[in-house]
Amino acid sequence: MRRTLLYALLALAGLVTVLPLLYMVSLSLQTEAETLAADAVLVPDSPQWGNYAELFTRAPFGDFIVNSLVVAGAITLAHLLFDPLVGYVFAKFRFPLRNTLFVALLATLMVPFFVRMIPLYVLMANLGWLNTYQGLITPFLMDAFGIFLMRQFIQPIPDDLIHAARIDGASELRVYRSVILPQTRPALAVLGLFTFVFQWNEFLWPLVATTTPEMRTIPVGLTLFNQEYFTLWHLTAAGSVILFVPTAVLFVLTQRHFVRGIALTGLK
């Protein structure tokens, strides 16, 4: 009975969690009249798949999606390239002020982005990078949280493995590529998923750093679309579904590594 009750509670919690998502999908397939009806329509009488096509005719959502993929993809690749490398240096190398520099790096996590946004905007403006991909990507090429995550995961790797590789004549780059990276795949999956989801949903900086619809990302484009067509809730819901799908697909593809990475990171 106790196990049955536990499963029932878990099923109820799962239903409550997924219900808003299911209603969003239902809303995206309704007519405008159904969305404005006094009583909520849970299942549309005739699903309107054309709502998704109409969404692309009313706003350049194709550009929004491409921009989000380019920005989020480039930043994610940069994090997967730089964060493990810096984390490896802090975890396995001895140099003066190592701990002081690491604490200073972690201290940047306590600085709100709003504090850095104005000088960052001025810098991008002086470089002529506003309303460009480099202006959207460059400020986020590395992240203190990603470096911390990779350092904590790399630190327990036995030093004997590294020393053995060096004795065999491996260069530092070969040690990093052949010894360290294969041991950190679960953490890399966690880092990649977190980074992509965060950057895919990022709103404030793309709103500030872009001035034309052709350079806006999908969160910004969807918000401005909703302000212009604030009664077309079925189209706004369709845009929200499009915003959700890539992150869901990425999670499904990396689920095994993601769960293992979370478990191992907690143990370490």
From TrEMBL:
One of its GO terms (cellular component) is plasma membrane. Residues 65-254 form the ABC transmembrane type-1 domain. It is a multi-pass membrane protein. Pfam families: BPD_transp_1. The keyword Cell membrane applies. The chain crosses the membrane at residues 61-82, 102-124, 136-154, 175-198, 232-253. Keywords: Cell membrane, Membrane, Sugar transport, Transmembrane, Transmembrane helix, Transport. Its main location: membrane. Gene3D superfamilies: MetI-like. InterPro entries: MetI-like, MetI-like_sf. It is found in: Cell membrane. CDD domains: TM_PBP2. One of its GO terms (biological process) is transmembrane transport. Belongs to the binding-protein-dependent transport system permease family. This is Multiple sugar transport system permease protein. It comes from Nonomuraea wenchangensis.
